[in-house]
């Protein structure tokens, strides 16, 4: 009998809850925006103005706003700063002054300043927001925290927001972060992990303000709207090169503390210019408005980027920089910074669309002009019969053809998209872009402005206003995701590590630079066009002393010795290999060359790839002498290094390339697969005394004796003299010492620091501890002459024979020599 009464009570409760929910749905919505670092430079210049623009866009559209400026500054001082900033806010030029004044007064009433430092401060802020929302009869929709603070404060702030200042159920949270997002891959991963413990990925908005530049934001839509015209042009067959440039006239004065830690590559290239690079180079998604599709295609572009090498960069530093650092950071008079303020980087993308097309990224301070642009220069494949004076801009294919995304400043003075009239007439949204008119006499990139279809925004908008609007509307495609960020650091960190101690070229600054910073690229190398005879960095240990040089004897292991500098040494060695190959092919019809991996032979590979166009590659067989037990596409694979630095640049028939079979049947170096035996049989079948005069074999020196079979699989090796006896490297497959000792001629190349001791250790006798000494026993009777790179004070030297041909790899235990040594062997 009581059951119907219970059901009535439950139904009544449900109705009350439903009615309350409907009433809550009907309540006006409020968004609270908390700007941390509200008194800082970025906030005063851009962020408050961006928040005001958001208010102007959204007022009257159903949302109420509250703006909380916060900082560590005292309440009284902070209120004074914020009052001045709010008074300086401006409205769009087409807004009536009276309406502007009214909205500006409203915005000021909705903005406040408070100190935000301790967890208790965050809790108090959250309670105040909740109380204000309830008092005004509103419903909280969400909170935006904009962190305009140094990155070292991110984790503590994130912890306080997560524990004390999250909005209630049903409301969203968005946390906005400003760069830098780490100093290298490791620090970026660490920061991402820590932030990820407090926020979901969809709650974080990492700002790269370049993605808010109107022209940058137009790159993907432009490509999408002009697919029909660009599909046949946007590739290696038609594009000569791509330039992505950001030049500044200002120097780093007042910011040297930041600049000393980051430099121009971390400040500009790793983020701004890399983001632009991916927008230009990525495959175009079917739906360019889908953040998920855009991110996926960006990541694919990152995966196709060729690894950067030391020769991929040129560095500069304006001459006044070190003095500014000494003054601002209280450094001693002897201090001289190596931080680059200028950098040019050569990037290649190894995919079918962009293979061989150079992408030039360049940025610097104290340059001759302030300008930013992306320039796609197309190949000139036409021959025009008429003289130049008869060429018509809209018709002649002999005039330069280019597309320029003019990001800002420079002679044009405003953002624009320029397309050569002899390419095609582009389609842009007419509601937001208009044709540039007038400007007679203005020339851009070698052509008068009239030779371009030129379009500029109908209404210019600063980057932060656009990005803040996208944050409010939850548009994630304009922000850097964790995956995107880490992919960028994976690409840039190795180059940054290799440049850490590089001395930049000094330049006077601005117009006085002249052609001093001009650079050029050839064969994958970047170099300054104007050589300098000498550049000294004064200070302790700045130049070698006479005592730093070592006099070399005329003999080494009872053979004549010739010394040379590294470039000459590599060139001579490569020339000798080519001469031997030509002789072998002329006599036997083929040439066998076995090569080792690692970093030391890279310069030789590059020399062979770019400086020896008569090399008989079509008749050359390439072998590996040592391979790690990893897949051939793994970055640690010696074959992958050979592919990157040599094979992809020369025309060797694929059936003449013989990688070691370390990866068979989806297994790595499995004994039952008999990969070593198969490789030995392949060598025996193809390399015979009657068919090949020259072949090059290799061995990697370890603390253990080499195997006795022709080809053997080796387990993880232990470093000689190691105290903990932990394995120092992965398993390998290698050629054996007995096979190597069948060679008639041997060459040794040693490059790097601190090689004198090991060179002396193996200079006489035969010690089983050093297998290389067993190989070198054949040298005196077979090869006759050595070349040794001249010593510097750091112990740099190189050894090789002018008549012998490289590829024998020699890795020394770390206790004996910290850098790898390479020895190269060749013979019949």
Automatic annotation (TrEMBL):
<keyword id="KW-0732">Signal</keyword>
<keyword id="KW-0313">Glucose metabolism</keyword>
<feature type="domain" description="Glucose-6-phosphate dehydrogenase NAD-binding">
    <location>
        <begin position="34"/>
        <end position="216"/>
    </location>
</feature>
<keyword id="KW-0119">Carbohydrate metabolism</keyword>
<dbReference type="InterPro" id="IPR022675">
    <property type="entry name" value="G6P_DH_C"/>
</dbReference>
<dbReference type="InterPro" id="IPR019796">
    <property type="entry name" value="G6P_DH_AS"/>
</dbReference>
<dbReference type="GO" id="GO:0006006">
    <property type="term" value="P:glucose metabolic process"/>
</dbReference>
<feature type="signal peptide">
    <location>
        <begin position="1"/>
        <end position="24"/>
    </location>
</feature>
<dbReference type="InterPro" id="IPR006148">
    <property type="entry name" value="Glc/Gal-6P_isomerase"/>
</dbReference>
<dbReference type="Pfam" id="PF01182">
    <property type="entry name" value="Glucosamine_iso"/>
</dbReference>
<dbReference type="GO" id="GO:0004345">
    <property type="term" value="F:glucose-6-phosphate dehydrogenase activity"/>
</dbReference>
<dbReference type="InterPro" id="IPR036291">
    <property type="entry name" value="NAD(P)-bd_dom_sf"/>
</dbReference>
<dbReference type="InterPro" id="IPR001282">
    <property type="entry name" value="G6P_DH"/>
</dbReference>
<dbReference type="GO" id="GO:0009051">
    <property type="term" value="P:pentose-phosphate shunt, oxidative branch"/>
</dbReference>
<comment type="pathway">
    <text>Carbohydrate degradation; pentose phosphate pathway.</text>
</comment>
<dbReference type="GO" id="GO:0017057">
    <property type="term" value="F:6-phosphogluconolactonase activity"/>
</dbReference>
<protein>
    <submittedName>
        <fullName>Hexose-6-phosphate dehydrogenase/glucose 1-dehydrogenase</fullName>
    </submittedName>
</protein>
<dbReference type="InterPro" id="IPR037171">
    <property type="entry name" value="NagB/RpiA_transferase-like"/>
</dbReference>
<dbReference type="GO" id="GO:0050661">
    <property type="term" value="F:NADP binding"/>
</dbReference>
<dbReference type="InterPro" id="IPR022674">
    <property type="entry name" value="G6P_DH_NAD-bd"/>
</dbReference>
<dbReference type="Pfam" id="PF00479">
    <property type="entry name" value="G6PD_N"/>
</dbReference>
<feature type="domain" description="Glucosamine/galactosamine-6-phosphate isomerase">
    <location>
        <begin position="566"/>
        <end position="688"/>
    </location>
</feature>
<dbReference type="GO" id="GO:0005783">
    <property type="term" value="C:endoplasmic reticulum"/>
</dbReference>
<dbReference type="Pfam" id="PF02781">
    <property type="entry name" value="G6PD_C"/>
</dbReference>
<feature type="domain" description="Glucosamine/galactosamine-6-phosphate isomerase">
    <location>
        <begin position="717"/>
        <end position="776"/>
    </location>
</feature>
<feature type="domain" description="Glucose-6-phosphate dehydrogenase C-terminal">
    <location>
        <begin position="222"/>
        <end position="511"/>
    </location>
</feature>
<feature type="compositionally biased region" description="Low complexity">
    <location>
        <begin position="705"/>
        <end position="722"/>
    </location>
</feature>
<keyword id="KW-0521">NADP</keyword>
<dbReference type="InterPro" id="IPR005900">
    <property type="entry name" value="6-phosphogluconolactonase_DevB"/>
</dbReference>
<feature type="region of interest" description="Disordered">
    <location>
        <begin position="705"/>
        <end position="732"/>
    </location>
</feature>
<keyword id="KW-0560">Oxidoreductase</keyword>
């Amino acid at each position: 009998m009581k059951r119907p009464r219970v059901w009535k009570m439950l139904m009544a409760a449900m109705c009350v809850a439903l009615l309350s929910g409907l009433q809550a749905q009907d309540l006006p919505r409020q968004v609270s925006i908390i700007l941390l670092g509200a008194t800082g430079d970025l906030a005063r210049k851009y962020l408050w103005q961006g928040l005001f623009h958001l208010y102007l866009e959204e007022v009257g559209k159903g949302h109420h706003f509250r703006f909380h400026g916060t900082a560590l500054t005292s309440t009284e001082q902070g209120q004074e700063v914020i009052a001045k900033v709010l008074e300086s806010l401006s409205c769009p030029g087409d807004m009536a002054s009276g309406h502007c004044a009214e909205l500006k007064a409203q915005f000021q009433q909705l903005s406040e300043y408070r100190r935000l430092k301790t967890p208790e401060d965050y809790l108090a802020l959250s309670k105040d927001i909740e109380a204000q929302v309830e008092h005004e009869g509103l419903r909280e929709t969400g909170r935006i925290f904009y962190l305009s603070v140094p990155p070292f404060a991110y984790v503590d702030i994130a912890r306080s927001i997560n524990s004390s200042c999250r909005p209630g159920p049903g409301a969203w949270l968005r946390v906005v972060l400003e760069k830098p997002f780490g100093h290298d891959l490791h620090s970026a991963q660490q920061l991402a992990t820590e932030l990820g413990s407090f926020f979901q990925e969809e709650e974080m908005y990492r700002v790269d303000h370049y993605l808010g530049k109107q022209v940058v934001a137009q790159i993907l839509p432009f490509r999408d709207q002009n697919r029909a015209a660009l599909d046949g042009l946007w590739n290696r067959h038609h594009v000569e090169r791509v330039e992505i440039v950001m030049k500044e006239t200002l120097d780093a004065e007042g910011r040297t503390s930041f600049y000393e830690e980051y430099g121009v590559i971390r400040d500009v290239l790793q983020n701004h210019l890399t983001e632009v690079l991916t927008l230009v180079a990525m495959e175009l998604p079917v739906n360019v408005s889908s953040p998920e599709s855009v991110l996926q295609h960006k990541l694919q572009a990152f995966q196709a980027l060729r690894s950067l090498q030391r020769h991929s960069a040129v560095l500069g530093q304006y001459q006044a920089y070190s003095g500014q650092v000494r003054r601002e950071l209280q450094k001693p008079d002897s201090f001289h910074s190596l931080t680059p303020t200028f950098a040019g980087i050569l990037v290649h993308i190894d995919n079918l669309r962009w293979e061989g097309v150079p992408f030039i990224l360049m940025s610097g301070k104290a340059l001759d002009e302030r300008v930013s642009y992306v320039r796609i220069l197309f190949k000139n494949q036409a021959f025009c019969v008429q003289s130049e004076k008869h060429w018509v801009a809209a018709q002649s294919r002999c005039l330069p053809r280019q597309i320029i995304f003019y990001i800002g400043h420079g002679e044009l003075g405003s953002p624009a998209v320029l397309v050569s009239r002899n390419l095609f007439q582009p389609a842009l949204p007419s509601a937001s872009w208009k044709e540039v008119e007038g400007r007679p006499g203005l020339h851009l990139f070698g052509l008068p402005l009239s030779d371009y279809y030129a379009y500029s925004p109908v209404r210019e908008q600063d980057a932060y206003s656009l990005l803040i609007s996208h944050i409010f509307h939850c548009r994630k495609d304009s922000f850097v995701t964790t995956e995107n960020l880490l992919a960028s650091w994976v690409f840039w960190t190795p180059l940054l590590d290799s440049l850490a101690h590089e001395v930049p070229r000094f330049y006077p600054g601005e117009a006085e630079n002249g052609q001093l910073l001009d650079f050029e690229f050839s064969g994958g190398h970047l170099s300054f066009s104007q050589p300098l005879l000498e550049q000294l960095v004064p200070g302790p240990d700045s130049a070698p002393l006479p005592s730093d040089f070592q006099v070399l004897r005329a003999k080494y292991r009872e053979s004549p010795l010739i010394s040379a500098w590294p470039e000459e040494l590599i060139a001579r060695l490569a020339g000798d290999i080519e001469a031997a190959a030509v002789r072998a092919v002329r006599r036997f019809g083929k040439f066998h060359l076995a090569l080792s991996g690692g970093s030391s032979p890279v310069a030789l590979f590059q020399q062979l790839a770019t400086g020896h166009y008569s090399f008989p590659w079509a008749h050359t067989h390439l072998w590996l002498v040592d391979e790690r037990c990893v897949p051939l596409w793994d970055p640690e694979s010696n074959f992958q290094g050979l592919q990157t630095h040599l094979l992809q640049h020369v025309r060797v028939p694929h059936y003449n390339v013989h990688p070691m079979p370390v990866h068979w049947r989806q297994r790595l170096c499995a004994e039952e697969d008999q990969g070593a035996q198969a490789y030995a049989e392949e060598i025996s079948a193809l390399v015979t005394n009657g068919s090949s005069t020259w072949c090059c074999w290799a061995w990697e020196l370890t603390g253990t004796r080499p195997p006795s079979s022709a080809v053997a699989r080796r387990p993880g090796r232990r470093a000689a003299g190691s105290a903990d006896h932990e394995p120092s490297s992965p398993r390998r497959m290698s050629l054996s010492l007995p096979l190597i000792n069948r060679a008639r001629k041997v060459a040794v190349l040693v490059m790097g620091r601190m090689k004198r001791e090991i060179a002396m250790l193996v200079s006489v006798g035969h010690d089983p501890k050093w297998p290389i000494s067993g190989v070198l026993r054949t040298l005196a009777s077979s090869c006759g002459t050595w070349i040794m790179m001249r010593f510097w004070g750091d112990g740099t030297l190189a050894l090789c024979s002018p008549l012998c041909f490289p590829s024998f790899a020699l890795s020394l235990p770390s206790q004996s020599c910290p850098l790898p040594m390479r020895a190269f062997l060749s013979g019949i």
